[in-house]
Amino acid sequence: MMPHLTLRLTLGTLLLCVVTVSAQPTSSPAPAGQDPAADLVRQGQQKAREGQHEEALAIYRQALAKWPDSFPAHLQTGVVLDLNGQYAEARTHLAKAIEIAPTPENKAQALRTMAMSYAFERKCSDAARYASQVYETQIAGKNFVNAGEVANELARVCLESDDLDEAARWYQRGHEAGLQEPDLKPERRDLWDFRWEHAQARLAARRGNKVEAQKHVEAAKAIFDKGTNPEQAPFVPYLVGYVAFYTGDHQTALTELQKGNQDDPFILSLIAQTHEKLGDKVKAREYYERVLKSNAHNATNAYARPLAKQKLSSK
Fold it and tell me: pTM of the prediction?
């Protein structure tokens, strides 16, 4: 995934309990401060992680029948409905989650999840209506790191929604916010600058400006080569591959993208498209099928999953 994309929208990474779909809610009262539907939500999330979306929905609906004002149950129902392509229904649950969010953090989570719902349909302006609220709140609270990440996340949604001008504006806001990080250390400045060069390279490539794109690729590489942010290593070949793909060098794109994160559905979708450009429909199908194994509700899957479904249904 992109260097600036660190989504914190779902509870899936926090809830690790593995149970069966037939399990019933505990009869004991929920601990103070815990949502009463928490156990069922955990069960549903496990099913969703396994790709069993209908089973997950059945569990969430069971939870909502008993606790209709459960924030996590509405949130996770919206997530799974998005993965199923049922966007309008998903947004009724996400709107409810925004309305009943018990804390400011929960509300921010729900707003970002709603923004991502629109990303699945590549609707930049609709996504911005929700993500921008989180950005403004973070700026007002001087939480510049979070503000920068939210801005970059929205920028990527806009980029892959083909709204390049809006993407450029949000990437710039993300960079400017990040540089206001308190006590900014040199390695953190390098990270924000790397992300900015990375973004500008991709924007230039999408505009068909190969020379400009390459200039920013080299700038990003130079920052990475300082060695201050070694964890960004997978994003260098991803960048080179992305630029190569959108500037017509498909063989280089394939070589470089295969060095990237092979668990990232967005990269897999680019590899699939590259195989199509190179005339290998069998390999393209293989990669689109791999995309559909991802059950993430984030910017990488918001682009890749609907594309893979469309491509596979047309073959």
Answer: 0.87
